[in-house]
Specification:
The chain is an alpha/beta fold. The protein is about 25% helix and about 25% strand. The chain has 2 domains: about 30-95; about 110-365, Rossmann fold. A hairpin with a 4-residue loop joins strand 4 (about 55-60) and strand 5. Helix 2 crosses helix 10.
Length: about 375
């Protein structure tokens, strides 16, 4: 029994820290039709494909389809409006596709002009996009931090808000994310060493004129943002946080992800020794142990003093909404929580207008001093 439990914990820890892998193309295009003069695509019905909002289909073999609202459904299928396709003739019946909330493929696709820059980190150069606002520029920068196994393009949903606020944006990569430098076995340390790379990005911003910095963090990027904001080095510089579906407690997130794949949530505790104990972490393939308590912001709530806006999906199966609710109660003076009927990091997709409006209003209520 002990060997079985240890083996399961090992497997969970390996899965959590695995290097980025390719997309899973689990959907099939069942049909293409016309709806009120526009193309629409027919897909199998599931909780993702019926969700309110705007999303992307990434097509196997290349190309993507930007999807609008549901325009028809039955017991087995759902039909969604096609807003655009790249290439224009790339959509065909029978194609395999991957569902995604990553709405913009790159800065140009989001209508943003980006300069390719490099942030020097301890493990090598990390590519980044530097995006300057077209008008009303300030000396405030926004640093955008993506989540585990997600590309930096996913953060472009928040970059548009920063641009509208007049902020310079730095969209970063970090070690072992598939775009940043490779370190060790290529495995994630769940934010422990990745935080060092974001610290380097903050120093880059300061060296290039940033007087105040807002951190936008998505999922594990939120966990990283919280670590950076707690650094004494950046006190008075990190002015506020905007976090979408943040990992506020890795233990709770691990339990939720166990439940999501059909395991009892309690089995997540079996992974903890494999993550927290140095020798066991090295057997998993990680270069660093993960001090889970350092990432528990319920236990560390009194240390969170930077004004923080959290966007949280109430249907999130990865970052438990209950943890965000609890943190907002514990730190009501500094944490504002806004909820969406959405799954993990999909609040923007479910209602992009409200997400952007609330972020801009919140930023406007806390005018930065020069």
């Amino acid at each position: 029994m002990f060997a079985g439990a240890a083996g399961l914990g090992f497997a969970i820890a390996r899965r959590l820290t695995a290097p980025p892998s390719g997309r899973v193309y689990s959907l099939t295009v069942r049909g293409i039709m016309r709806h009120e003069g526009h193309d629409a695509v027919v897909l199998d019905r599931n909780p993702s494909t019926v969700a309110t909002g705007v999303y992307n289909l990434w097509l196997e073999g290349g190309g993507w389809v930007r999807l609008g609202p549901v325009v028809g459904e039955d017991a087995g299928t759902v039909t969604r409006l096609v807003e655009s396709t790249e290439p224009a003739d790339g959509l065909a019946v029978g194609q395999r596709a991957s569902w995604s909330g990553i709405y913009y493929r790159d800065p140009a696709d989001a209508g943003l002009h980006a300069e390719n820059v490099v942030v020097e980190t301890l493990v090598g150069p990390a590519p980044a996009w530097l995006i300057r606002p077209t008008a009303n520029a300030t000396n405030v920068w926004a640093i955008h931090i993506h989540g585990l196994a997600s590309p930096r393009a996913g953060t472009l949903r928040g970059v548009k808000v920063a641009a509208d606020a007049g902020f310079v944006s730095l969209v970063v990569t970090y070690r072992n994310d598939g775009e940043g430098p490779m370190a060790g076995s290529g495995r994630s340390t769940l934010g422990v060493t990745e935080t060092d790379d974001v610290r380097a990005a903050v120093r880059f911003a300061i060296a290039h004129g940033a007087r105040r910095i807002v951190l936008f963090g998505w999922s594990m990027g939120g966990a990283i943002a919280l670590q950076v904001a707690a650094d004494e080095e950046f006190k008075g510089v990190i002015d506020r946080l905007i976090l979408d579906s943040p990992v506020l407690d890795w233990s709770a997130t691990i339990a939720a992800n166990c439940a999501r794949v059909g395991l009892a949530p309690q089995v997540g505790v079996l992974a903890r020794p494999w993550l927290q104990c140095g020798p066991l972490a090295r057997l998993v393939g990680s270069r660093s142990a993960v001090p889970l308590r350092r990432f528990n912001w319920i236990a560390r709530a009194t240390m969170l003093s930077v004004p923080t806006l959290i966007f949280q999906g109430v249907d999130d199966t990865s970052s438990p909404p209950a943890v965000a609710y609890r943190l907002a109660r514990l730190r009501s003076e500094s944490v504002q929580l806004e909820t969406f009927r959405a799954n993990h990091t999909l609040g923007w997709n479910s209602d992009s207008g409200r997400w952007q409006r609330q972020a801009l209003e919140w930023l406007g209520e806390r005018t930065l001093q020069p």
